[in-house]
Design brief:
The protein has about 180 residues and is an all-alpha fold. The chain has helices spanning about 10-20, 30-40, 45-50, 55-60, 65-70, 75-85, 90-110, 115-120, 140-155, 160-170, and strands spanning about 125, 175. Keywords: Glycosidase, Hydrolase, Metal-binding, Zinc.
Amino acid sequence: MKRCGWVKLSDKIYVAYHDEEWGKPLHSERALFELFCLETQAAGLSWLTVLKKREGYRNAFAHFVLEKVARFGEMDVARILEEGLVIKSRPKIEAIIYNARLFETIIKEFGSIDSYFWRYVEGKPIVNAIADYKTAPCTSNISDAITKDLKKRGFKFVGSTTIYAFMQACGMVNDHEDSCGCK
């Protein structure tokens, strides 16, 4: 099968992620929360670095059960830093917890994380024509709008590039190359 040019074929984790997850519409609350958290961790790093630590993040953050993560405190931050299962950045670890609390507010307002994000694309993926991944957009008017709203709400480690990557990953945007078997 032909794959997008960004996939490192020598890395089984990356190939599996591309083939089985990236760009597929995601609506599970827990999975969306996890993906959002992981995307914020990737700021300044490669996605593969974060992806390889995904199990560590799941273990450190109660398998991304929002209600549990929102109740984490300083002892949990210290534990996570000490365990070393995730990228050792106190601000990024604290951001996951802080953002979890803000998602509780979003759920009260919109009913779900899914409803909040997917309303920006009217519930269906945007399919872009991408001849070569190097020409794919890194942001959009929609990622700009989501970022603006999230920042207004106080979310941390969110920028338009991070949000666009989240949109691609959860299938709000399908940016597989036109020749990719996953398109």
